[in-house]
Every structure is written in C-alpha cells, then in structure tokens.
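REQUEST ID: PR-0412
SUBMITTED BY: lab tech R.K.
PRIORITY: routine
TASK: structure prediction, single protein chain
INPUT:
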Amino acid sequence: MPNAAPLILLSMTLLAADPIGPAAPGSEPGSVAPARVIHADASSLIPGVTRPAREATLGVPFDATIAGVRVAEGGRVRAGDIVVMLDDRVAREALRVSEVEASHTAAVDRARAEFERASESFDRAEQASDSGAMGAERLSEARHRRDTAAADLRFAQETLERARAQLALTRAQLDEHAIRAPFGGVVARVHAEAGEVVSPGQPLVDLIDPHRSLVDLYLPAGEALLLGQGDRVALRLGTPLDAVVNGIVRFVEPRVDPAAGAVRVVLGFDAPDASVPGGVLVTLADRLPGDRDATRLALIAEARTRMPGTRSSVASVSEPAEAAPAP
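STATUS: complete
OUTPUT:
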C-alpha cells in the first residue's frame, strides 16, 4: 500500500479570498470555520525553523569606545532601556559649549537697539526733509544706516537660531551614545564589553521577543494560494517540543518561486506566550492538535517563564553595581 501524502489541515474562513472582508451571513464574530484537509506531496515540502516575531542586533552609528554594558544574557529589558553606554565625555563637553552659545542673546539685543535708534533717526530725518530742513543726501544716509542696522539685526537673530539648532543637534548626538532597546524582550547574546572600541556594523547585543514566534514554510503553490490571513494550519513542532499546534497564517507571499513551484507562507502559532522558542523545526502535521499537545505547550510556557533571568531587569555587568540595601 503506497504511503499516504501528508495532509495540510487548516481552518478556512468562509471568505478565504478576502480575509478582511465582511463576515459571512449567519456567522458569529470570532467563530472558527470547520477544519479542511488539503493533500500535499511530501517530496515538495521543506521543514521550516521557528524564529522570534521580533529580533534585533544592536550596534553603533559611529566609531566609539564602550563605557559600560548594562545588560546580561537572559535579562529582560523594556523598550527604551539603555543596554550599552558609549563613552560620551567629548559629546557632553560639546553640549556645554552649544548651551553657552545658544544662551548668548547680547548680540541680538545690541543689534535691536541699534536698529531702533537708526529707525528713529531716519523718521526724524524724513520729517525734516519733508519740511525742507534737510537735504536729500542726508536723508539717504539716514535710510542707509537704518537698512544696515536692520540687516545686522537679522544676522544676529539668524546666528542665534543657528546656535539653538546646533544645541538640538548636539543633544541628539549625545543621546546616540546611549544604545537603547527598540522593544521589550530578552537579551539573547552580549557581544561587547566595557573598554572595547567598536565600529558600525559590529554587533553589540542580540535582542529577541520570546513571547511570539513565526515560521516560514514554502508550500506548493496550489495549496498556498488557497490560504488567507487568519487561516489555521496544523503544524508539527519538532524536538524538544514534540507537539502539534495550529499555525495561523500571517502572510502569503504574492509570488511563486518558479524553480520550486512553492510560495512562502508566514505563520504564527495558536499557543501560549513563550511556549514556542526560536530554532525549532516545523513540518506539516497529519492530525489536528489534541488535549495532550495543549497541555504540553502550557507546561513548557510555564517552565520558560520561571527560568532565571527572565524577569524584568536591567543589570550592569560591565560596571560596578550599587550595593543592595541590607534587609
């Protein structure tokens, strides 16, 4: 008896061709359509590998010396937390200079006073000229002094504006010395240490969000193009999970690989947060998830949340930490 081809078991919505369209008549909001079976050729299927839904390798925007690494591998960070601090002594001195220059308003005050005096002199000269008490040449000189004072005032104001813009730029440049987490997650790996000179492109810290994982599967075009966003596909998770879970279609790439006749499908997992780590092999399952699978994934998620270092913390490992108060 020939081997049966693997099956793709999925829950199709009534409007698979338009996953964001209106609900079908009689359907309840949030309801899931019955499972549907699609046959696929085993020889055309390649296992996928789970990856974090969000991950980032943090680096530096310029050559710099590391002043301190403020996280440890396995530690959790929040979005915006400082993970690496660069030596910012020169940048801080530059900020002080910019603050002084941006606070100097004496040149503007002096230029404004000169302009006001020149304007008053021109007004008097114009009145005298109208009455015939002043010649045209002296009126022209008064007008020239007024216009020159106005130009000097504009120059002083523009110089002050440039100083204030430079101050904002210097502050931004100083802030670049603090390498921050772009999202909340777990530090997967620390590549750098205090005192090291680093350059752009050199990795400092790998950050991942362990709560949600994705997998890219290359499915035969005939099956993949029937899938819509939100459809469910039964997936088998390899070692060490060894469980079946419903994958949720997040994206179907709108093009076919002509050589393989396959389409990339990105799937999430209908599973507890943190239950599916990255690096796990994923294949199509030949059955739907059962109670045993759900229980196993729930236990894995609970165990992972109890792992040391997964609580929210930002601890310095390259700089002396402050002593904790005695209990």
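NOTES: The chain is about 30% helix and 25% strand.
REVIEWED BY: pending
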